[in-house]
Write a structure and sequence with these properties.
- There is one protein chain.
- By secondary structure, the chain is of the alpha+beta class.
- It has one domain: Aminopeptidase, CATH 3.40.630.
- It contains five helices and seven strands.
- It has a seven-stranded mixed sheet with strand order 1-2-3-4-5-7-6, with helices on both faces.
């Protein structure tokens, strides 16, 4: 199945709300992603994504012109401004089809070519073995584990920091 990475559009708001309110997707995301995810939050995210700066670069993932996920790179604050944080998510019905492997390869290549980045990190919830495997598959290495750092669904989880260098 061939994916397409494209810039976010204001017309994506409704689809974004629907996808982000899937509890299975939300369960893989950091705690700064609210549930329920509202139209206001979708508008704020897409507005930020369409401004596109070196500090934040985001893409919608689609198949056959249907929004199925998102991926973004956010520059960390000084003095770590050469490091970017990678966030990604995909509609549950497309999990385990190899799509995100290609998406992440594309976005990592994009980052090292077009952004002032020397290292990309991905923060993964300790129980999300599939995300850890996926990042490892494209060259990320586990750099740190912060024990009991995330409270998700009433349960403490480790936070795994994975990284890839230019």
């Amino acid at each position: 199945m061939k994916h397409n990475l494209r810039r976010w559009l204001l017309t994506d708001e409704e689809d974004l709300v629907k996808l982000m309110n899937n509890v299975h997707i939300w369960n893989t995301l950091s705690d700064n992603s609210p549930l329920p995810f509202t139209q206001k939050e979708a508008k704020e995210y897409i507005t930020l994504a369409t401004k596109r700066t070196d500090a934040f670069d985001a893409f919608a993932i689609e198949i056959d012109q249907v929004l199925i996920g998102g991926v973004s790179l956010r520059q960390m604050a000084v003095p770590c401004h050469i490091v970017y944080e990678l966030d990604f998510w995909l509609s549950q019905e497309y999990w385990e089809q190899g799509i995100m492997t290609y998406v992440l390869q594309d976005i990592v290549s994009h980052a090292f070519i077009h952004l002032p980045v020397l290292k990309i990190i991905g923060k993964v919830l300790g129980e999300n073995l599939k995300a850890k495997f996926l990042l490892s598959k494209i060259g990320f290495q586990e750099e740190a584990v912060i024990k009991n750092a995330v409270l998700k669904c009433g349960k403490l989880q480790d936070l795994v920091i994975m990284s890839i260098d230019e």
